[in-house]
Amino acid sequence: MSFFSKTKTFKPQRKIKEGTKQYELKKFADATLGSGNLHLAVVLPEGEDLNEWLAVNTVDFFNQINMLYGTITEFCTTDSCKVMSAGPKYEYHWADGQTIKKPQRLSAPDYIDRLMNWIQDLLDNENVFPSKMGYSFPKNFQSIVKIIFKRLFRVYAHMYHNHFDDITNLGEEAHLNTSFKHFMYFVREFKLIKNNELAPLKELIKTLLEEKKK
Amino acid sequence: MSSSQLKRFTKVNTKSRALSGLVKKKSVNQTSRQTNKKVELCKKFMREHYLNVFSYLSEREKRIQNLREGMKQNKVSFWQKKKKTKEHFSKETHFLRNRRSKLSMENFKVIAKIGQGGFSDVFLCERPEFQEFIAMKRLKKDKLSTIDEIEHINNEREVMIKHNSDWLAKLFYSFQDTDYLYLGMEFLQGGDFKTLLNHLKFLDEEVAKLYFSEMVLAVEDLHKLGFIHRDLKPENFLIDSKGHIKLTDFGLSKKIDEVSENDPLPMAEKLEKSKKTSIPSLSELLKEESFFSIPCSKRLNSVAGSPEYVAPEILTRKKYSKEVDFWSLGCLLYEMLSGTTPFVGRTKEETLENVIHFKKTLHFPTYSDGEEPMSKEAWDLITKLLAPKAKRLGKSCISEIKEHPFFDGIDWKNLRNVEPPFVPKILNQKDISYFDTTYFEKTSLEISNHSVFHYLENPLKHVLSFNYSRIQLFEKENGNKEKV
Lengths: 214, 484
Prior knowledge:
The complex is a heterodimer of chains A (214) and B (484). Chain A is mainly alpha-helical. Chain A has nine helices and three strands, in the order ααααβββααααα. In chain A, helix 4 packs parallel to helix 6, helix 5 packs across helix 6 (141-169) and helix 6 packs antiparallel against helix 7. The termini of chain A are close together. In chain B, the strands form three sheets. Chain B has a six-stranded antiparallel sheet with strand order 2-3-4-6-5-11, with helices on one face. In chain B, strands 7-10 form a two-stranded antiparallel ribbon. In chain B, strands 8-9 form a two-stranded antiparallel ribbon. In chain B, a hairpin with a 3-residue loop joins strand 2 and strand 3 (120-127). The longest helix of chain B is centred in the first third of the chain and has 41 residues, at 33-73. Chain B starts with a helix and ends with a helix. Chains A and B meet through helix 4, strand 2, helix 5, helix 6 and helix 7 of A and helix 1, strand 1, helix 2, helix 3 and helix 4 of B.
């Protein structure tokens, strides 16, 4: 497949009504950074420790989302997004399982702030993400990584559903798509997020990842 | 998973659907400059990130292939092969872990404060596990008020990492905490050129010639990287342990307010302004995708530089380019040979006046005993460097300077192998006796013990890519080794 057909091909719609969010998202799904073999980039490299690979990628995705979301903080305010959601159908409530046990309804910026800080604290915790040589990962490391990915996904979901217009206006759709596509390949490769969690972006995920099958 | 956790992720009824449909959004035209800058940084970050993702994987692939080919050719035994492969993979894991390693001041032991600027301090620090000493520049984030400044530092940092010049100081680490940015630079034990000049008052012409040639090469290398220094002065030339010159401090200072050409501010006010901003800014990266050329069309016209060394076109707010550095070099040569800078006045105002009217104020220096401090060639070079920018030597190419008769006998390609006039006598790796003693104080640093790249309330969260550690060299080293 040539570079041009990849970016220009109009894909047949899968029974998505025009005007719906999913339709809009599908329309833009083709715009990526043209980086190619993302599905190969997620595979555990030969000889690498699985946890080490999960760890470095977790940090990378966290950084990317941090950068991407950082560009729309002007548009994602307590006014514009009173409740953290992924479009009208999905709402997310915050609980960290420690200090906050009962899920709270928060505005999107509050929710995302807490979510990112919660991840940041884990990434900074030497007992969870050891950065010095000779220290090993905790036994429950992979289940922690799964929770991190589940939560990071929600930031993508919010950006796609509630701010995709902002993203396109800023000319960042290719960047977001590339990042999310990479993220989803990674999630799929290591089975990090359950299907029901992925529902808000189901159609988009299909579109983004289907190229590989051809 | 508890039921309460599941609740967080639930379908909501139509009522709230209607609500969120009403959400108003800001239109694009309202996008602030801040956001646009953030977008620019984000796109750059993403581009680079994906380049790295793919180059990392292909390099990694190459490394293992090279190892295997090498072992095949050298007929390594089965067990040796197994051992070597295992070692190789553990090196790769080591590298991956280092990519995540969060450097902070906790990794360093502060030995002494060796410098101070308007908005930054420099400390001699040790990284104990490597027994390595570095000059740690600490910049307070509050003082970097605009995202432009952050970008400058970031770009600057990038060039400092990329350069491969013997004449420019290297950057080994950069990281941040909640309050500060840190730049861990090569620690050069010979102190700075200013301290050397202060001790010797002036230099013999043969000695000056050697130092000056090295300075010219340093400036040439910096220009090749797409930088204009804008603040060349003796204290920005450091002396390494062998006695050679290295240029430092490119573009870390606070950028002075940009002033347009037809800026109506009277001189007095300008001076007042420049006083407030302490020592003004240094170099500035040209706004170019590629750092490796200085396009003539993109000139800078903001005020910068130390008054005694600053070119007149900067003071008169004319457009300027790399030839401003040649002016400063001219001032430096004059100072080395005569002991004073050519335009120094009793006050800063006087100095600036002198620079602006340089045609009248530049004089051949003479001593009270009538002895002449410099040769005809030296004076000729100085007058060609302290010339109007259109006529200034080096304007079209730096080789115009290098070919000047003053440099007769200089082997430009071999300067690093010439024994420098002064070789510092260094007791040990942390000997700081060549530094200005004003700053010597046993220092304990206040370390903000927060996360390295703190999220959200941190104004610099968008310089995540700021964090860097020289461990990247491992990859290079490794690659080269296995190619053999």
